[in-house]
Design brief:
The complex is a heterotrimer of chains A (260), B (300) and C (65). Chain A is mostly helical. Chain A has one domain. Chain A has ten helices and no strands. The radius of gyration of chain A is 21 Å and the shape is globular. The model of chain A has no long low-confidence stretch (mean pLDDT 92). With 300 residues, chain B is of the alpha/beta class. Chain B has nine helices and 14 strands. In chain B, helix 2 crosses helix 3. The longest helix of chain B has 14 residues. Chain B is elongated, with a radius of gyration of 24 Å. Chain C has a domain of 45 residues. Chain C is elongated and about 45 Å long. Classes of the chains: A mainly alpha (260), B alpha/beta (300), C mainly alpha (65). Chains in contact: A-B, A-C. Chains A and C meet through helix 2, helix 3 and helix 6 of A and helix 1 and helix 3 of C.
């Protein structure tokens, strides 16, 4: 555990000094704020752009607050996930490739601490940013569209955090097991591509980690099927555990691949 | 003398390729041992196994009296091209490595400062390692290897990337360190390091082909060479012509190599008196380590 | 829509965040040794790329050491 705090301090310093601690929260905040704003002012924006035919009446659907929160989530699910997968695919693999990890691996470090220091910093950056962004989103939605039930929002947020933890575990596992390039491809595939597949063909099954963001939205609307939701959470938590154990295993196994 | 490490029959295979083949040697405490061999002889592989980066296919290592898989706590390792986190300062980096090597967190910073001072990086300790020059990186590499006072220091080509001045400085530092630790290092630059070799291990294609102290190896391989100084290059050439031994000439000096250890001086004198050559000086020269190296790695 | 009717209080945070992102991206661009593709091109993308310019830079342009 002593190792952990030293290794975590290193991760912290890295992410402060390369500005990730700044720009990742800002990106999530940006989408959290802009989504309600653009939806609310869309008619005016369209008017201002001025390419509406004379006399056309542009009828926008009335959005519920819940719909605004969910449309923010769909932004996070694309740009946010792209940022997480590509931004962190090298978190272990890159250290091996450029040889900086060599001087860690020759020391009596525990690989559990090593992987967990990376997990921890990713959680702070990714989950912290998402919470920050969604709270700002909630505030703007409240001002422009009305209130969201606090209990439902907490349930929604909790579910989305489990999903984010799943994504983080995928990226961490890939980076421990593969090179940066392959880790990027595998993470993209497992997060974005499978999500797409689940969206297209997912009507045939109901229990899947990739359905968690959808269930999160249903919690917000209080329309979720609890059994399916709970089972999906259980499956996801199991997957997270397996991925993390795998990440530690591969981080240790791939020590010999570090550049000397 | 006490043994710090004994390696028995170490073999490392990559598929069918044997990078290290049945290597056995011991390191005594407070001695320096040089691993000598051409590129690809297996030097780095042996060091990597000892550093815990690679697992041997066969063989055992006894460290400080224990048969053990993991003795990373007791070693310091300097790779040939050490790579640091460019966004950490030298002090932050050394402090971190000290803590990870088990130095008490309360004194880690102090130890790191002392080590950097000792290696002449005191003024640069607050600078990011990304701005360091090659020589400074080598010193920082050494700092992280010694900050926790390891009982075994593993150095992979510690001086080959440096200019002659830097090389001398690092070698002097290593000599100082030898008082408190045991050093195993690989090299292919021999003459610079001659004073730092209590034991020599010659490697060729993964096999240990020769080992011993400097004196033992010298005696075994250095056929005596006699340097005969003549008054002119013509005379030297004449002597080479008359000489029944293998001989060569360089300006006014003739070199004779006598295969058997017994130099037949009488024979030499007879040739001289018969030919009326005027010899001004004779010197017995020892073959340089470089020459021994070539002999050892080229044999068999 | 008149100038006064624009809800500046709501939009201002968005503008500030956007501005900080651009500044951070530009500072990073100056400091970082290598980018994927020429630096001047990334400078244009960051400044003129609207909301996602800096984001594209951070995801794609930044080459980690």
């Amino acid at each position: 555990m002593n190792n952990f705090s030293v290794l975590f301090q290193k991760e912290w310093r890295e992410n402060v000094r390369n500005f990730k601690i700044l720009w990742i929260p800002l990106v999530f905040l940006l989408f959290g704020i802009s989504e309600p704003l653009t939806n609310y002012y869309l008619p005016q924006i369209l008017n201002a752009v001025g390419n509406m035919p004379e006399g056309a009446v542009f009828q926008l659907p009335e959005f519920t607050p819940e719909q605004i929160v969910m449309s923010t989530i769909s932004q996070y699910q694309f740009i946010g996930m792209l940022l997480v997968t590509l931004g962190f695919a090298g978190i272990i693999a890159r250290e091996r490739k450029n040889g900086t990890a060599t001087l860690l691996y020759v020391r009596p470090i525990s690989y559990i601490s090593y992987v967990y220091s990376k997990l921890f910093i990713m959680c702070i950056l990714v989950i912290g940013s998402a919470i920050l962004g969604l709270l700002a989103n909630l505030y703007y939605t409240y001002i422009l569209f009305g209130t969201v039930d606090a209990g439902a929002f907490m349930g929604f947020l909790g579910t989305y955090i489990v999903w984010l933890l799943f994504v983080i575990s995928i990226v961490l596992f890939s980076s421990a097991a593969f090179s940066t390039g392959i880790a990027s491809a595998v993470s993209l595939l497992l997060v974005l591509f499978v999500q797409l597949i689940d969206g297209l063909l997912g009507a045939y099954w109901t229990i899947s980690p990739w359905k968690l963001p959808m269930y999160a939205g249903e919690i917000l609307n209080s329309s979720v099927d609890m059994t399916l939701f709970v089972w999906s959470v259980i499956v996801t938590v199991l997957a997270i555990i397996i991925l993390l154990v795998g990440a530690v295993y591969f981080a240790k196994r791939n020590v010999s691949k570090t550049k000397i | 003398m006490k043994t710090l490490l004994h390696m028995q029959g170490l073999t490392k295979e990559y598929g069918k390729e044997k990078a290290v083949d049945d290597v056995t040697f011991s390191l005594n405490k407070h001695t320096s041992t040089a691993l000598i061999g051409p590129n690809g002889a297996g030097k780095t592989t042996i060091l990597s196994v000892l550093a815990g980066l690679l697992k041997q296919t066969k063989g055992s290592i006894v460290f400080d009296g224990e048969i053990t898989e993991d003795f990373r706590k007791g070693i310091g390792f300097l790779p040939q091209y050490p790579k640091f986190y460019s966004w950490l300062t030298a002090l932050e980096y050394t402090e971190m490595t000290a803590k990870l090597s088990g130095v008490d967190v309360k004194i880690a910073r102090l130890e790191a400062e002392k080590t950097l001072e000792f290696l002449g990086l005191g003024d640069a300790k607050k600078k990011k390692t990304g701005t360091f020059s090659g020589g400074m990186k080598q010193r920082l590499g050494l700092a992280q290897a010694i900050v926790h006072k390891p009982s075994l220091l593993l150095l992979d080509e510690p001086v080959s990337a440096l200019d002659p001045i830097g090389r001398r400085e690092i070698l002097n530092l290593l000599k100082e360190l030898q008082a408190s630790t045991t050093i195993l290092y690989s090299t292919h630059i021999l003459n610079d390091a001659e004073e730092m070799m209590d034991q020599l291990l010659f490697l060729r294609k993964g096999k240990l082909v020769e080992q011993g102290s400097m004196r033992e190896v010298r005696e075994k391989y250095a056929n005596p060479v006699y340097k005969m100084y003549f008054s002119s290059s013509e005379e030297a050439a004449r002597f080479v012509e008359l000489s029944p031994w293998s001989a060569r000439q360089e300006n006014s000096i003739a070199f004779i190599h006598i295969e058997e250890a017994k130099p037949l001086m009488n024979e030499v004198l007879r040739v001289l008196s018969d030919s009326n050559l005027s010899l001004s000086k004779v010197e017995r020269a020892t073959a340089s380590l470089e020459e021994i190296f070539l002999q050892v790695v080229n044999k068999g | 829509m008149g100038f006064e009717s624009i809800p500046w209080k709501l939009i201002l945070p968005l503008v500030i965040i956007q501005f900080i992102l651009i500044i951070v991206a530009i500072i990073d661009l100056i400091r970082v040794r290598d980018t994927n593709g020429p630096k001047w091109l990334w400078a244009i993308i960051i400044i003129l790329g609207n909301m996602i310019g800096p984001i594209i830079y951070f995801i794609v342009g930044r080459r980690n050491e």
